[in-house]
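Thanks for the sequence, V.! I ran Alpha/beta fold hydrolase right away. Repeating your input here for the record:
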Amino acid sequence: MTTYVIRNVAVEVEGEGQAVVCIHGLGGSSNNWTPVLSAFDGMKVVRPELPGSARSALPSQPLSIELYVETLAGVLSELGMSKAHIVAHSMGTIVAQHLAIRYPELVKSLALFGPLLAPPEQGRPGIRARAALSREKGIAGVQEIADAIVKGATSAETKAQRPVTIALIRESVMRQSPEGYAQSCEALAGALPAEVERIAVPTLLVTGDEDGVGQPAAVTAMGERIAGSKVTILAGCGHWTTFEKPAECATELKAFYKSIQ
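Predicted structure:
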């Protein structure tokens, strides 16, 4: 594995073969994909950390979905990748949808975990409140947010049976810088839905039966708007899909890539 810094973005690259680009969500990092790396055997795996998240620097301009899309397109260009499979989680699925529509020549397929079109209007003030808390209290505020996420965004099964998963999710959020996390929240709060009917590549949508963000009914409706897409709902799973149900997610990915060869 080699780690590069491209356009101030930390990017892990390993393997050879068809490229797969993995996009994490709010409070995530390249490690969102570590539990499912077995699904990418025989592929060149590219794991960027979005601007302002984890090890990537916060740019001078405010974070937005558009900035994420343009940054990722630039990173792929600098890596010499003309077409890639895209895998994404949560906020990253919004980025992936817009990337597939704005730069269709770059995208070979989409695999979206805990997907959403955009936050519902009633949910946006709460996301902005998280940004304010992160700025006001700094690392203590980010810790408070991490604890709330662990409580509210994981399944009952995960909380009861997977303490290491709980620790991993908490750590993922707590490693974010307060200002980077705040701006990431604002980017999500300002996200607009993509015209997903324009997506013309094989698409897999995976969510949990206890996911309050990528709610099963909403994900099913989303799948109905994307021609030929497949929707899978995992039992006993909350929003942190690849952390809560890694084996099941890897199985879904392997079957998906086999079906589109």
